[in-house]
Amino acid sequence: MAVRRVVPNVRSEAAQESREFYGLLGFEEVMNHGWVMTLASPSSPAAQVSFIAGDKTAPVVPDMSVEVDDVDAAYAAVRDSGAEIVHPLQDEEWGVRRFFVRDPNGRVVNVLGHR
């Protein structure tokens, strides 16, 4: 299994202000579903940050997102380790398959793969 990118998620009700502020640092909006907006560096597209008002289908806002090339294998490894699954593995309408897990520090990690 390979990690494709890691994205910090910031719980925020200030999407417009965040877009403007991080725009000063060179970030541009690459995704906006209304409840989640992702900004990325045009020169280094894997350098991203997301701002989330509230997750559409999950009970919590994750602290970070980790995109992997095989989310089913990641889910099996995490489940078999006994880690707490916070949100079950499922296909989302916006084109990702994902689950949330709590890490040893208490942080919630959104593990995903694009379909």
UniProtKB/TrEMBL annotation:
Question: Where on the tree of life does the source sit, at the highest rank?
Answer: Bacteria
| InterPro entries xref list | Glyas_Bleomycin-R_OHBP_Dase (IPR029068), Glyas_Fos-R_dOase_dom (IPR004360), VOC_core (IPR037523)
Domain VOC, by residue range, is 2-114
Q: Name one Pfam family in it.
A: Glyoxalase
Instruction: Please state what the protein is called.
Output: Glyoxalase
Organism of this sequence: Streptomyces klenkii
